[in-house]
Amino acid sequence: MEQDWFFYSITLFTFSVIFAFCYIRHVYTFFERKRIPKAGYPTFPFGHLYNVLFEKVPIFMQLWKFYNRFKRKKCKFGGFYMFLKPAIMIVDAKLIQLFFTDVFENEERNDLDTEFCEEMLCSVLKSVQKVWPEVGQIGEKEINFTQILGKEFVELCMQEFFSTQLYEIKRPSIFPLFRKCVSLTYPQLCKSKAFRKKILEEIVKRRKKTNLKEDNVLQVLQKNGFSPSDTVDFILNLVDYLEKSNNLILFTLYELSLNREIQDDLRGEILRFRKNKGTFTYTELKQLTYLETVICETLRKYPIKPFVNKICKNSFEQNDMKFDKNQTVFLSIFGIHHDVDNYINPELFDPDRFSEENEMFIDSIKYLPFGHQIKNDFDSLYVKLIMKLVLIELLSKYEFSLGKRAPKCVTFDENFFEIKSKEDMWLKIKKVCN
Known about the structure:
Helix 6 packs parallel to helix 15 and helix 7 (145-162) runs antiparallel to helix 11 (228-258). Strand 5 and strand 6 form a beta hairpin. The strands form 3 sheets. The protein has a 4-stranded mixed β-sheet. Strands 3-9-8 form a 3-stranded antiparallel β-sheet. By secondary structure, the chain is an alpha+beta fold. 29% of the residues are buried. It is globular, with a radius of gyration of 25 Å. The chain has helices spanning 2-27, 30-34, 50-54, 59-72, 93-99, 114-135, 145-162, 176-185, 194-209, 217-223, 228-258, 260-274, 289-301, 333-337, 378-395, and strands at residues 77-82, 85-90, 142-144, 307-311, 316-318, 321-323, 328-332, 398-402, 426-431.
């Protein structure tokens, strides 16, 4: 009896190993069967994410490598594996256009009323202008702007926006990169709303104890009839984009420190704008045309969404292209923005690309810093507003240059899906002589 049990166990184990081997081989020959070029040989069980998880390569840089590889081979698209799941990287311009059609599942986006957007942006503008006296008192010659903008400024804005310290509440950080990669590959496994419920409970608890400030963000949301759940979603979105905005400001200051002529031209526009003005309105910011071009160029070189992915809703076939239903498709926005076929000298920081006379040459399909083609949606207007307010305040008071502690070249943090500097941004400042 014992011998039979041992024999059955060995047989079951052997068949299990054979079945697992056949399954893995079947999965990892997907692109050969579909006759799709692939990005080298995968590593079980990580696929082509091995370098991301172990070699500490930011995922958007790895996707950029795939983009360049397929581009060199003159492929319209190519394949790679995320763990055991095949994914497609789009390269061809016509396919990129297709990426934003109904063929693929689109992001859930809230269509916000224009009047509400303007009211919210005006509220944000007033709140940010209030916190500057506390943030702006800088006495050192070389300072850590990552600390000031990434932490202190965000905390002050949160308190002014919502009359509460939402920034104190953090997500748990257990294997963050691995968890992000799994959620990107298998989104159905990561739909927990526990974090949002925790935030909601915190808002409700603090709202009872605190009188809301006039015209702050939370009051505007309540006045416009947002439910508690929608309020939480909107607040989380604002917090997320506030942090990303400050990250972009750090890159802008770094580029301006390297390009003094651009910095001087921008400061001249800002000083002329701020002459005899203590505060200003949202509409008046449109006068700062050169500031707009500087921000657009920052968003090109360091897009807020360096890649996007979607799911093919149904099987799609056109000419020599075929996508299966539920096929995951990626777009490397970082790759598109740094493609020499799309931008001359893409590594050069050149705001004149977006000047009024050159604007007609910018193809909307080749400029996607927010991961979509919608112009002037709330997220993009909000990010640009924060960037404008901070840059106006800083450049009207200080000249920036690279100090001894400044990074010699920008390196990106591999633990984030968005573009974030790995090193703190230490910059030398000097008071502007008016």
